[in-house]
Amino acid sequence: MIAYPPRNGEGDRAKRGGGGVQRAVRPEVALARRLRRTMSYPEVLLWQRLRGDALGLSFRKQHPLGPYVVDFCCIKARLVVEVDGAVHDGDRAAADQMRDHFIRENGFRVLRVRASDVHRDMDGTLAAIVSCASLPLHHAAHGPPPHAGEDI
Length: 152
Known about the structure:
Layout lengths: L12 H4 L10 H11 L3 H10 L9 E6 L2 E7 L4 E6 L7 H14 L3 E6 H6 L1 H13 L18
Parallel strand pairs: 3-4
Antiparallel strand pairs: 1-2, 2-3
């Protein structure tokens, strides 16, 4: 007796949980995956120095945060690093402010680094990132941090 493989759509894969409908991916996650493949040159240079644990910090690249995708994120230090090129000088300022406001409301600090500084002074840029990451978001002596809107 010859056993033929099942035709398309037949067999027990559906019963075992294989095949079928693809999982839906949030738009931010799909965008982050695409941005990881198409990083700008200054972002690639900075990522080569941030990746791993060389600085004692663990960073993620092109990380989704709410409706936004940030360039680099250190979850432990609650720090977001954004590399700004010439595009951010013009009409993007208002959008960047809204984005920064959202990120800060969600407990992260934002450090904006100019792309030209990454090219010109990589060591200084890394020192600024490490310095910012080592500062606590909140001083324990002042009590717990306020919730969004309570400090007004």
